[in-house]
C-alpha cells in the first residue's frame, strides 16, 4: 500500500509542477503582451486558459481518487489537501493572467503608450513569488514559503505606487485615460496573483508545520 501511495504522491507532484509551469508561463506572456502591445500573444494567452482549467480538474480528480483508495494519513494527507487548495489558486492565477491579456489586447489596438512606473519589475517580483511558492511546496520548505509572505507586502506597495502614478498621468493627459485605466487593471491583477502565491505559501507552512498563519503578519515571525 505504501509503495502505491508514494507513486500517487509522485504523480501528483508532477501534475502540480506542470500546472504551475503553465500558469507561470501564462503570466509572463500576458505581461509581455502588455509591454510589447502584442495582440496576437495576448489572444494566445486567452486561448490557453481552458487548458489550465482542464489541468485543475484532472489534479482534483487524482487527489480525490488517492484519498479514496489509499486513505493517507499524517504528512501524506496534508500534502494531498495542500495540492487540492494550491490547484484552485493556480487556476485562479490562470484566470488573472487571461484578464491581463484582455487588457493587453485592448492596448495593442490603441497604439503605443508609455507605461507608468515599473510594471515589468512588479511582474518579475510576482512571478518570483509564484515560482518560490511552488518550490516551497515541492521541497516542503516553510522558510521559502515565509519569504513569499514577506514579498507580498512589497508587491502591495508597488501596486499602490502604480495607482498613484496612473492617477497623476490621467490628470496630465486625460485623453489617455482609458489606456491608463487598463494599465491600472493590469497592476491590480498582478497584485491579486501575488495574493494567490501567498495563499500557496501559507498552505505550505501549514502542511509542513501544522501552523495556520493566514491571519497573521509576516512581521510577527510566522
Q: What does this protein structure show overall?
A:
- It is a single chain.
- The chain is built from 6 helices and no strands.
- It has a single domain, classed as Phosphate transport system protein phou homolog 2, domain 2 (Methane Monooxygenase Hydroxylase, Chain G, domain 1, Up-down Bundle), CATH 1.20.58.
- With 222 residues, it is an all-alpha fold.
- The model has no long low-confidence stretch (mean pLDDT 92).
- Helix 5 runs antiparallel to helix 6 (177-209).
- The longest helix has 37 residues, at 74-110.
How many structural domains are formed by the residues?
A: 1
> What is the CATH architecture annotation?
Up-down Bundle
Helix content: over 70%
Give the CATH superfamily.
Phosphate transport system protein phou homolog 2, domain 2
CATH class: Mainly Alpha
* Termini separation: 36 Å
Number of helices: 6
CATH topology: Methane Monooxygenase Hydroxylase, Chain G, domain 1
- Which structural class should the secondary elements be placed in? mainly alpha
**What is the average per-residue confidence, as pLDDT, rounded to a whole number?**
92
Order of helices and strands: HHHHHH
Radius of gyration: 19 Å
Oligomer: single chain
- Sum up the overall morphology in one term: globular
Strand content: under 5%
Largest sheet: none
Counted beta strands: 0
Amino acid at each position: 500500500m505504501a509503495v502505491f501511495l508514494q507513486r500517487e504522491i509522485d504523480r501528483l507532484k508532477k501534475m502540480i509542477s506542470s500546472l504551475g509551469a503553465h500558469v507561470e508561463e501564462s503570466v509572463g506572456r500576458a505581461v509581455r503582451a502588455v509591454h510589447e502591445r502584442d495582440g496576437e500573444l495576448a489572444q494566445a494567452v486567452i486561448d490557453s486558459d481552458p487548458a489550465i482549467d482542464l489541468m485543475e480538474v484532472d489534479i482534483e480528480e487524482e487527489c480525490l481518487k488517492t484519498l479514496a483508495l489509499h486513505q493517507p494519513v499524517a504528512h501524506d494527507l496534508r500534502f494531498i489537501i495542500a495540492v487540492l487548495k494550491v490547484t484552485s489558486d493556480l487556476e485562479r492565477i490562470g484566470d488573472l493572467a487571461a484578464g491581463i491579456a484582455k487588457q493587453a489586447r485592448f492596448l495593442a489596438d490603441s497604439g503605443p503608450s508609455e507605461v507608468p512606473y515599473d510594471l515589468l519589475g512588479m511582474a518579475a517580483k510576482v512571478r518570483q513569488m509564484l515560482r518560490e511558492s511552488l518550490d516551497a511546496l515541492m521541497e516542503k520548505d516553510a522558510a521559502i514559503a515565509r519569504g513569499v509572505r514577506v514579498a507580498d507586502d512589497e508587491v502591495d506597495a508597488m501596486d499602490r505606487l502604480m495607482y498613484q502614478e496612473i492617477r497623476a498621468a490621467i490628470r496630465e493627459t486625460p485623453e489617455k485615460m482609458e489606456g491608463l485605466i487598463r494599465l491600472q487593471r493590469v497592476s491590480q491583477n498582478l497584485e491579486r496573483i501575488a495574493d494567490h502565491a501567498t495563499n500557496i505559501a501559507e498552505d505550505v507552512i501549514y502542511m509542513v508545520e501544522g501552523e495556520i498563519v493566514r491571519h497573521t503578519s509576516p512581521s510577527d515571525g510566522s
